[in-house]
Design brief:
Radius of gyration: 25 Å
CATH architecture of the largest domain: Alpha-Beta Barrel
CATH superfamily of the largest domain: Aldolase class I
Strand order of the largest sheet: 2-3-4-5-6-7-8-9
Bound molecules: 3-methyl-2-oxobutanoic acid, zinc ion
Helix content: 25-40%
Shape: globular
Largest sheet: 8 strands, parallel, barrel
Oligomer: single chain
Length: about 525
């Protein structure tokens, strides 16, 4: 039997994940995610890019102080100012790591850095040495490694290990690599770089061609010891390797990969839901492992097979990712205990106060809807999680509309406990009318970039789930996108809630910050 080795899981949800358009998080939200990542069992938390903004610095510093049980890492470009700022934020961590990066591919050398190969190596070595003087744990990333000439990549990796790097991360920055190529790069480094055993080889794959998980697995097969990934695959452009997918692939196919991770897989669904609700970026229903349909069997032939022996159509047990299977349908007469059981089984951890509010909403929903399915409970919980104080919240609307006439909308909202109302007689239809009413009442002007409605469950009385993306017109926010979500059996009410949730995010805004790879 082959010995099982442990692959380290480096989570970069709070750094690369936060680079997803519209995924900015505040300090409280980042802290909540960092604690959830510790519970999940990740080895390394990349908490941010400290020089990017005072807000980023503060989040890394607070996470570094609060976290125990995982390495806390901060990103730095390969210059003294970045590295010192990163150290300043990390120095109180129990296990700090400085992550220094510098591009190495010919296209980046020529057009971005305007440096030749020797200059790149010299800068990389100087950066790693400087970081090493501050912190014993130093990771170096040759940015765009997957498009870097392999001979040159070997030279860079050898030089940074010699300079003290303890982890060398191989990023496929633009998601260009293929699995066999990634395998060859890692194997090439293992075969050719002197001293390679003194460092952990890591991979960081982007998903532009939908290959991030496959490329990361290929790297592990070739001997990589660390995978950089994010919850729900969040990240720059098409995102990063999805943590839940890569971890469950290694676990489900441990017969093939002979590896293990320290991830507590039963926490995957709750962590995914927490991140989706904090960022407002919902997980597609059919997403592997954590999508709502990932363990739903619709086809009769599948259901029949499942009843006889579930392994006929299921390669993982839902409870192993934090979902408990149930066919139980709740209704008007279900009590608080039944609801508490359901929410727990669905992977939500609610405080007694949250459960009380949820129960009140559940009763209201049960008056409107006969049968309440898991999807309904999940939707209610997600609304609950995303509710933050001191913002606008929906109360009610009155509407009169007819084809060919502008709608008349009267909207009432709560702002800090005080009810406010507004009336408009404008818009192309009821939803546009509601949107204009919200803009008038909150004084926030935005451009609507996306608007989607879908049914949460089956049946005519199903709840509508509305998601919107609004772009701020505030020049200070430089076109940032903010998301909102609303759920109700009334699709107009769901729309109003979604618009208000997104406007609330616009109000919170985000501080101007540097982007690590665009400067
Ligand atoms: O994609 C990338 O190259 C990165 C580096 C900073 C590791 O995010
Ligand atoms: Zn990246």
């Amino acid at each position: 039997m082959t010995a099982t080795r442990t692959v380290r899981i480096f989570d970069t949800t709070l750094r690369d994940g936060e680079q997803s358009p519209g995924a900015s998080m505040n300090l409280t939200e980042k802290m909540e995610i960092a604690q959830a990542l510790v519970q999940l069992g990740v080895d390394v938390i990349e908490a941010g890019f400290p020089i990017a903004s005072p807000g980023d610095f503060e989040s890394v510093r607070e996470i570094a102080k609060a976290v125990s049980g995982a390495v806390v890492c901060g990103l730095a470009r390969c210059n003294n100012a970045d590295i010192e700022r990163a150290w300043e934020a990390l120095k109180h961590a129990q296990q700090p790591r400085i992550h220094v990066f510098l591009a190495t591919s010919s296209i980046h050398r020529e057009f971005k850095l305007r440096m030749n190969q020797e200059e790149v190596i010299a800068r990389a070595v100087a950066g790693v040495k400087h970081a090493k003087n501050l912190c014993p744990d130093v990771e170096f990333s040759p940015e765009d490694a997957a498009r870097t000439e392999i001979d040159f990549l070997c030279q860079v990796v050898e030089a940074v290990i010699e300079a003290g790097a303890t982890t060398v991360n191989i990023p496929d920055t633009v998601g260009y690599a293929t699995p066999l190529q990634m395998h060859a790069v890692i194997k090439g480094l293992r075969d050719r770089v002197r001293g390679i055993d003194r460092a952990v080889i890591s991979v960081h794959c982007h998903d532009d061609l939908g290959l991030a998980v496959a490329n990361s697995l290929a790297a592990v097969e070739a001997g990589a010891g660390q995978i950089e990934c994010t919850i729900n695959g969040l990240g720059e452009r098409a995102g990063n390797c999805s943590l839940e997918e890569v971890v469950m692939a290694l676990r489900t196919r441990s017969d093939y990969y002979s590896t293990t991770t320290r991830i507590v897989t039963q926490k995957l669904v709750p962590t995914s839901r927490l991140v989706a609700n904090i960022t407002g970026i919902q997980v597609p229903r059919n997403k592997a492992i954590v999508g709502r349909n990932a363990f739903a069997h619709e086809a009769g032939i599948h259901q029949d097979g499942m009843l006889k022996e579930r392994r006929t159509y299921e390669i993982m047990r839902p409870e192993d990712v934090g979902l408990e299977r149930t066919d139980l349908v709740l209704g008007k007469h279900s009590g608080r205990a039944a609801l508490a059981d359901r929410t727990k089984a669905l992977g939500y951890q609610l405080s007694p106060e949250q459960l009380q509010t949820l129960f009140e909403r559940f009763k209201m929903l049960a008056d409107r809807k006969k049968e309440i399915y898991d999807g309904d409970v999940a939707a209610l919980c997600e609304d609950q999680f995303s509710e933050l104080p001191e913002r606008f919240s929906f109360v009610s609307y009155d509407l009169a509309c007819a084809s060919g006439h502008a709608p008349r909308v009267m909207l009432r909202v709560l702002q800090g406990g005080e009810e406010k109302s507004v009336e408009v007689n404008a818009g192309d239809g009821p939803i546009d009318g509601i949107f204009l009413a919200i803009e008038k009442l909150t004084g926030i002007a935005t451009v609507c970039r996306d608007f989607r409605v879908q049914a949460v469950t089956v049946g005519k009385d199903a709840q509508a789930e509305v998601t919107v993306e609004l772009q701020s017109t505030d020049p200070e926010q430089s076109g940032q996108v903010h998301r909102g979500r609303g759920v109700s059996t009334d699709s107009l009410e769901a729309s109003a809630k979604a618009f208000l949730a997104a406007v609330n995010r616009v109000i919170l805004g985000a501080q101007p910050r540097l982007h690590p790879q665009r400067t």
